[in-house]
Amino acid sequence: MAFPGQHKAKSTWLAGKVKCGRCGAGLMNTNNPKGNSYFRCRKRADARSCEGCGTLRVHEFEKSIYNEMVKKLQVFQVLTKGHPAKVNPKLTALNVELAEVDSEIEKLLDTLTGANPTLLSYANSKIEELDTKRQSLMKAIADMRTSTLSPGHVKSISGYLTNWDDVSFEDRRLVVDGLIAKIQATSENVRIEWKV
Q1: What is the dihedral of CA 143, 144, 147, 150, to 10 degrees?
Q2: Model pTM greater than 0.85?
Q3: How far apart are CA 41 and CA 170, in angstroms?
């Protein structure tokens, strides 16, 4: 017995990642009578409330995304040579922001000595606000650390990309899932939201 959402994609290793660049709905793979595969906006197909993504041939689009993944991994290979701790610049930015928030909290706490009730009330609400921000930054940092590519992981994914023609469909899906959060696409524009 199959449960909804449990079916596995068989037609493209980008299934579930590609969204319409106009409305954000998922793109599905369709074949024309000649047997050519195209991506088509689900919203346009179902209700015609979107003008659609234009002409996106599945094979050409997959090739283009593959090339983008190769480029992205080359950047990480350069970053990991001799600097394994600096693999993810987003993580560095979050750590800097967290240090700034911690510094602000400390400054506020230092000013509280001998403060009047009004100032105490203001400082307390500001500290609560900063602490909430601090907690969310810490969570984002923790999440990102678990998804940050180690030099070994970069090497492993690079191996898959180097031998892409011999990589199984499921392994291609795993590589894409490790690198890409989503792709918004039209025939004129493609925007990849990277996980790294």
Answers
A1: -140
A2: no
A3: 24
